[in-house]
């Protein structure tokens, strides 16, 4: 895994919010992360895919759900980086507010509320 890819995975407020939840609260499905962070299913799934590809989280299929959890095999050095970023980064509520603000800005630029066509 490339260090730049790993760090880039940690550079998004929504991903940080999801990572904070999974890191401290254990395993969660996308639907739970969506609800807590105010993100759509497709957007949350894309964010979790980035974290999974970076090796930060693991996923498992549970019937129709995909559940994500902290990767216990992450190296101590990378674990220390994640923990430092989580301490310095926005809380989950802040990530939700940032995600909503991004959607409002996108909507203002496109003339569509929430940044997406309804």
Automatic annotation (TrEMBL):
UniProt keyword annotation of Hydrolase present = no
Please give the biological process terms from Gene Ontology that the record holds: response to arsenic-containing substance
| UniProt keyword Ligase, yes or no | no
Lineage, top-rank taxon, reads Bacteria
Q: Which InterPro entries match?
A: ArsR-like_HTH (IPR011991), HTH_ArsR_DNA-bd_dom (IPR001845), HTH_MetalResp_TranReg (IPR051081), WH-like_DNA-bd_sf (IPR036388), WH_DNA-bd_sf (IPR036390)
Identify the keywords attached in UniProt to this record, alphabetized.
Arsenical resistance, DNA-binding, Transcription, Transcription regulation
Report the GO molecular function annotations: DNA binding; DNA-binding transcription factor activity
Tell me the Pfam families matching this sequence. Answer: HTH_5
**Can you say what this protein is called?**
ArsR family transcriptional regulator
Write down the species.
Oceanicella actignis
């Amino acid at each position: 895994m490339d260090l730049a890819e790993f760090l880039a995975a940690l550079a998004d407020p929504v991903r940080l919010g999801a990572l904070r939840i999974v890191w401290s609260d254990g395993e969660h499905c996308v639907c739970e992360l969506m609800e807590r962070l105010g993100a759509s299913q497709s957007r949350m799934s894309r964010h979790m895919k980035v974290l999974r590809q970076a090796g930060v989280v693991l996923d498992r299929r549970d019937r129709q759900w995909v559940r994500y959890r902290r990767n216990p095999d992450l190296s101590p050095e990378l674990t220390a980086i994640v923990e430092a970023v989580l301490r310095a980064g926005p809380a989950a509520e802040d990530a939700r507010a940032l995600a909503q603000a991004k959607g409002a800005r996108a909507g203002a630029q496109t003339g569509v509320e929430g940044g997406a066509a309804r």
